[in-house]
Specification:
This protein is α/β, with parallel strands linked by helices. It has six helices and 26 strands.
Length: 434
């Protein structure tokens, strides 16, 4: 059940807190936050509070000074202090931090909206001044008419999201790394934007990767075939979108399996990592193993793993490189320059050089200074550190919050444009509306 809060809930009959154009929107859409009815030049503190699917609480705050008419507009007025400073229209969202250290914003179930309570308080600073007004922003992961169907067929474990209408729709396979398990957020939002999306657990039936010693490309082949057979699929080929470890899996899917027309690689590696890759009962790529002795500890209790991956260009590791020159589809490489999980920017540059060497021009690349590892759909809380299932402890992901948030906005639009360009249908994907 969706909880709907009206656009305006005033604790004072004079102060007005408005969320425009509506208090109900999609997760990846901005809202305009405006205040009215304050005293001329009055200083107030804006707060945002929320919790994720695991009950972890997040919050942010920012101090604002009203203009001569007693109004504040976060689209144009600067924060004077708090979780961020300067003009940041969506700063209260991306600057939210967990109340418990090293927690990732776990928003995984597409049917549950992200509820953010905005409030305005007297005065400035950390003290909780008298609340003057509040409003709840209901941020949906699925637009009206999008269908969500769990998939348990053969080895597949996933969820299929289909846009409203009969199609034809571009088809996308979402490989999202969340401890190897299933994540729905990105897939649901892509479906809302007009793509038919299947998101799958990376390890199939064994969603938590317990006792996994190898990964089988056959599983992703099964996923592709399932996706291609869905009613409404209109693209000639399928797209693949990835992040982190699933990046090298996406490269392998594009390089070894037919029918992949567009692959989005986000902050992955250029070589097969962690576990050997098998296909049709044979190993096709060995695993590039991590070097735990190179883990760097920090005062926060989180560690830096960036230097734990051996050189992908060393002679002894070349067999693990994914032969992306075999791919017939197009690539979009996206790398965060401050990724502290591993050196994504170097891997991207290596892959660009490799494709150039083989006379290929089927790629585009983009890098983001100041961004960290977890580049996700925009307007969620920035994650500086969280538990890494493979490392077995919290890790630093890197990035500066403001730059990271801007990178997410830019990349999200670029991903959609990339898929629309290379997964052509008879008609263009419909504009999605709530």
């Amino acid at each position: 059940m969706f909880f709907f809060s009206p656009n305006l809930q005033n604790m004072s009959s004079q102060v007005r807190l408005r969320l425009l154009p509506s208090a109900r929107c999609l997760f990846d859409e901005p809202v305009q936050v405006k205040l009215g009815g304050l005293r001329s030049r009055q200083v107030v503190t804006m707060r945002a509070r929320s919790s994720d699917d695991r009950g972890v609480e997040f919050s942010s705050s920012a101090c604002y000074r009203a203009d001569g008419d007693g109004e504040v507009d976060l689209d144009t007025d600067p924060s004077l202090g708090g979780s961020y400073v300067g003009v940041e229209p969506m700063g209260l969202l991306w600057s939210m931090r967990p109340h418990t250290l090293h927690k990732f914003f776990y928003k995984n179930k597409a049917l549950n909206p992200h509820l953010v309570k905005f409030s305005v308080h007297q005065g400035e600073g950390e003290g909780e001044g008298r609340m003057l007004a509040e409003a709840t922003n209901e941020r949906l992961l699925m637009g009206d008419g999008v269908s969500r169907v769990p998939v348990q067929q053969g080895n597949l474990r996933g969820v299929l999201f289909t846009p409203p209408g009969g199609g034809p729709f571009p088809a996308v396979l979402d490989l999202y790394t969340l401890g190897g398990g299933l994540s729905e957020k990105r897939a649901a939002l892509l479906a809302t934007r007009g793509f038919l999306v299947l998101t799958v657990s990376l390890y199939g039936r064994d969603e938590q990767a317990k006792n996994i010693t190898e990964i089988h490309l056959d599983y992703f082949e099964e996923a592709l075939e399932f996706l291609k057979k869905q009613d409404g699929v209109g693209s000639r080929g399928v797209g693949v979108v990835s992040l982190s470890k699933s990046g090298d899996l996406a490269l392998s899917v594009a390089s070894y399996l037919p029918g992949v027309e567009a692959t989005v690689w986000i902050n992955g590696c250029s070589a097969n990592t962690a576990l050997p890759l098998h296909y049709r009962n044979s190993q096709i790529l060995p695993a590039l193993k991590f070097e735990p002795k190179k883990i760097v500890s920090t005062a926060s209790g989180a560690v830096i793993t960036k230097h734990c991956v051996p050189s992908t260009l060393a002679e002894e590791n070349r067999d693990a490189l994914v032969p992306i020159e075999r791919a017939t589809g197009h690539f979009l490489f996206a790398a965060a320059e401050d990724d502290q999980n591993w050196d994504s920017k170097s891997y991207m540059d290596q892959m660009v050089d490799r494709l150039k060497t083989h006379g290929k021009d089927n790629y585009e690349s983009v890098s983001y200074p100041g961004a960290g590892h977890f580049l996700e759909p925009p307007y969620g809380p920035y994650c500086p550190s969280s538990f890494h299932s493979m490392v077995g402890r919290p890790v630093l992901w890197g990035g500066e919050p403001r730059a990271h948030a801007a990178a997410e906005v830019h990349l999200w639009r670029k991903i959609q444009d990339f898929f629309t360009t290379h997964l052509r249908c008879d008609i263009s994907p419909p504009e999605s509306k709530l």
